[in-house]
Design goal:
This protein has three helices and six strands. The chain is of the alpha+beta class. The protein has a single domain, classed as Hotdog Thioesterase (Thiol Ester Dehydrase, Chain A). Strands 1-2-4-5-6-3 form a six-stranded antiparallel beta sheet. The chain is globular and about 55 Å long. The protein starts with 7 loop residues before the first strand and ends in an 8-residue tail after the last helix.
Length: about 170
Amino acid sequence: MRWMWIDTITAFEPKTRMVAIKNVSMAEEHLHAHFAADADGPARPLMPNSLILEGMAQTAGILVGSVHDFREKVVLAKVQNATITGDVGPGQTIRYDARIERMDAMGASTVGIVSRFDHRDGEWREIGTIELMFSHLDQNMQGMQFPEENFVFGENFRTILAAAGFGAFGG
């Protein structure tokens, strides 16, 4: 999986909470089309809300997977609620603060707060809340085999975890 929407993990409370950061840069190709210049005005590059949602899903998914040391295959099962009220552009930073609300053998539900840091004014502002549900494939689809290359906690996530000091996970 190469589509990483988090850059680093900044806080981790086992089985409870994880905080991750995404720095938004003009070097990211998706910003150039969202929204490109047209007859109505100049370009207004913004991080698409769908990718902000994916960043929270990656953060919360790592948190859920870490509860059982990544022995379970965790997949996003449902977006329960997502409200994003602010835009994020190049030069700004997104913070994903994910918490586990419920956890059982079948999966988990999480709630997350999305905040934006604008380096011009030096302040974090909350811009959204996202509630997600995750499923443990091994529990919910017993008897089925899943190829490792589809496993969300692949090499890129192991690299992020190791860089944040969590190298023992996903070994």
